[in-house]
Specification:
The chain contains seven helices and 19 strands. By secondary structure, it is of the alpha/beta class. It has one domain: FAD/NAD(P)-binding domain, CATH 3.50.50. It binds flavin-adenine dinucleotide.
Length: 339
């Protein structure tokens, strides 16, 4: 059983179903709503999910990074990444899981009880028995809490708003503002007919005020505000007994940018490859495999992220480093910045 039909839970359900397992996929809400994030991803996304025009909103050619002392362009001469329509993407992923044979049920996970050889799951509609339970239920993961697993080490609060433009947007690069947030950065991301402006702060700091300051400085209007938590720094254990976590529930995100789609999809595939519901000890292999694949990058990204906490005038090294960055630097692999 998989809890949460976000992109990671849907992908996990599909991957397990493809391997012949019968999977129930529980979702408490309306898939894709509320809007979960910006949807800016590297082309690596298509190593995990087939490319479909219906959810690809924009092709991106590089970035322009700004701070108080100037701006630096990076990768403007090539296709570097994509902006996905997150509502359409999340719905596509859930439909894909359903088409593969996952049994989708609109139910809220409430609690679990581990019994010999099974997990008894309580939802708002009844009780189920399952051999294996996957928590893909996002940053605040009810499964994580019920299983007694630790939460990720850091939570950022992301806020963003959309500004509609007259006619299609020509800008084909993203902008990063190092001086928009004391703890992170701000962004301006082009979509088909609007720009998204956003930033993140450490949970507990005033994100709305920071967005207002950012809007005043960069001259955009704040309309509807969307927001969400970005969990970072996975806890020591993401599996125990017959329960495991995947995606945001496990803190499998990039500390450098807050992106979680590619790492979560990667972890979901590793889970489907390694975990055998008949042999829960295989969960240890999942834990080892995903850490081997992602933890070095997460640690490297987190080391660089710490520079975001410096006073604004000390953030100049970001631009300095950017100018020296290799053309092969990859947005999902911070270690590539050091090569
Ligand atoms: C402001 C912001 C901007 C972002 N920008 C990007 C970006 O540009 N690129 C990128 O790669 N990532 C980005 N992210 C991160 C990305 O959105 C997440 O990493 C991604 O959504 C994680 O997917 P998930 O399936 O693990 O969790 P979620 O997308 O959170 O899905 C979890 C699902 O579980 C369901 N659920 C929760 N509790 C229960 C329950 N008790 N019972 C049943 N169902 C339940 C929820 O309704 C939800 O559908 C951003 C995040 C934020 C906040």
């Amino acid at each position: 059983m998989v809890v949460g039909a976000g992109p990671i839970g849907s992908h996990l359900a599909k991957e397990f179903t493809d391997r012949g397992h019968s999977v129930v996929l529980l979702e408490k809400g309306d898939v894709g709503k509320p809007l979960k994030g910006t949807g800016h991803v590297s082309a690596d996304i298509f190593n995990h999910v087939p490319r479909k025009d219906k959810f690809v909103e924009k092709e991106i050619h590089g970035a322009v990074v700004h701070n108080r002392f100037g701006s630096y362009s990076f990768g403007r001469d090539r296709l570097t990444s994509y902006v996905l329509d997150r509502v359409k993407f999340d719905r596509y992923m859930a439909d894909r899981a359903r088409r593969a044979g996952a049994d989708f049920r609109k139910e809220r996970f409430i609690d679990l009880e581990t019994k010999k050889g099974k997990v008894v799951v309580e939802t708002d509609s009844g009780k189920y028995e399952t051999k294996l339970l996957a928590g893909c239920d996002g940053p605040l993961s009810d499964v994580r809490v019920a299983a007694g697993l630790e939460k990720p080490g850091l939570f950022m609060h992301g806020v963003f708003t959309k500004q509609i433009e007259v006619g299609p947007i020509q800008q084909d690069y993203v902008e990063v503002f190092l001086d928009a947030s004391r703890d992170f950065f701000g962004w301006k991301v082009p979509e088909e007919e609007q720009f998204e402006y956003g930033l993140a702060v450490e949970l507990g700091n005033d994100s709305k005020k920071a967005l207002e300051r950012f809007a005043k400085k960069r001259g955009f209007h704040i309309g509807q505000i969307y927001s969400g938590l970005i969990p970072m720094l996975p806890p020591e254990k993401t599996a125990g007994g017959r329960v495991f976590l995947c995606g945001d529930a496990a803190g499998q995100t990039k500390p450098l940018s807050g992106g979680g789609l590619i790492y979560g999809l990667t972890a979901a595939e590793l889970a489907a490859e390694t975990v055998d519901p008949e042999r829960p000890t295989t969960l240890e292999q999942y834990e080892k495999r995903w850490r081997k694949e992602l933890m070095e990058e997460i640690k490297a990204g987190n080391s660089i992220r710490k520079f975001y906490g410096l006073p604004f005038f000390l953030r100049a090294p970001f631009l300095w480093a950017g100018k020296r960055m290799s053309k092969n630097a990859h947005m999902d692999r911070p270690t590539s910045l050091f090569h």
